[in-house]
Amino acid sequence: MDKWRARILVLALVFAAVLGWLAVNMYRTVSHPNTLPEAAVLTLARGDNVRAVAQKLLQLDLLSQPEHFVWWVKLHGDSRRLQAGDYLIQPGQTLMQLMDDMVAGRVQQFAVTLVEGWNFRQVMQMINQNPELQHTLRMLDQAAIMQALGHAGEHPEGRFFPDTYHVSKQEKDIVLLQRAYARMSDTLETLWQARAPDLPYKNPYQALIMASIIEKETAVGDERPLIAGVFVNRLRMGMRLQTDPTVIYGIGEKYDGNIRFRDLRTDTPYNTYTRNGLPPTPIAMPGVAAIKAALHPAATDYLYFVAHSDGSGRHVFSRTLEQHEKMVDLHQRKR
């Protein structure tokens, strides 16, 4: 009996030593930082199991002992929790960290930027040309796109928040637009609740229209409240806004970069030289600064402004038509 006990003890010790050796090697396999010279991408397809992952890591020279990796994943119960997608492997990253990403679904993401001041046509051109997105809206017109988004009957202009969005590869374009629509709706509602009193807007949508005009009129931050103040003064007095960006929007794709006197006299729903009040819809995507300016215009008695001749993008503001005409002569006509 003593001999059998001794043999069993020896076998148990050998077995424990082997398990210990395997455990140490498995841990080394998954905890050792990789030596990649630059980032690499591992694509996990739907249906790929842990052995398929091991083979892909082997092909990327990130694994020398596939079985150690497979057993580590299985022992941790992660083999059935891997999520499909493209995973970015950074230099120095461990396989343990990669597995955490694959279980959590932290797939590689791409930046898609909707630029302040873009109109909806420009937004869709960018989206349709982006190879990282899955295109489901490419063949639809604006009305059909809004219906697909669940907002049938709404005009798309100005409804989407300009920002940089991070999307996974082959994310549907409609998902991106849904996110941007929700951001704009939430932002506009929040800022509307904190608006200045006695503004000449009937609802948040009219404030959005005004913000889009401000966005197109100036890129100079400290001028936006002044521009808003001029337009608010005009609305209160019943004066026409007479702003070129709305005319240009009304011209549409025929606009060649030059606005002519005949354009100012050609009536369209967006010609604020021929029509009173705000245009029927926004003319672009306004950013937060433009929305805030529309809702908090400067208290001023200015009624006119003209672009400064120094090329800075700034404007010269006037209280009377006589002053304005002099500034137009100085900065525009005589040049």
What does this structure look like?
- By secondary structure, this protein is mainly α.
- The chain folds into three domains: 2-104, Dna Ligase, domain 1; 110-187, no CATH class; 189-333, no CATH class.
- 48% of the residues lie in helices and 10% in strands.
- It has helices at residues 2-31, 50-59, 66-75, 95-104, 120-129, 142-148, 173-193, 204-217, 224-237, 244-251, 261-265, 288-295, 321-333; strands at residues 40-44, 85-89, 109-113, 133-134, 164-168, 171-172, 304-307, 315-318.
- The strands form four sheets. It has a two-stranded antiparallel sheet with strand order 1-2.
- The longest helix has 30 residues, at 2-31.
- The protein is elongated and about 115 Å long.
- It starts with a helix and ends with a helix.
- The mean pLDDT is 89.
